[in-house]
Specification:
The chain contains 1 helix and 2 strands, in the order αββ. It is α+β, with helices and mostly antiparallel strands and 61 residues long. A two-stranded antiparallel sheet has the order 1-2. The radius of gyration is 14 Å and the shape is extended. It starts with 13 loop residues before the first helix and ends with a strand.
């Protein structure tokens, strides 16, 4: 299976997707407490996000 990062669905499920990602991050940090995650947008999505959501480094406390 190949992932296509260029598809834009705009089906209104962004909050659900983000909640799923955050839940996965909490599970990841529970098993890897010394890890860190660096997140940024993919190139095809930068046009709508520049200045709104800069890359961030998240470390679980």
């Amino acid at each position: 299976m190949e992932i296509n990062y260029l598809i834009v669905a705009n089906n209104g499920d962004a909050e659900k997707v983000l909640a799923t990602i955050v839940g996965a991050l909490y599970m990841f940090f529970d098993k890897n407490p010394d890890a860190f995650v660096y997140a940024t947008v993919v190139k095809s999505q930068e046009r709508g996000c520049i200045g709104q959501h800069p890359p961030f480094l998240w470390q679980h406390d």
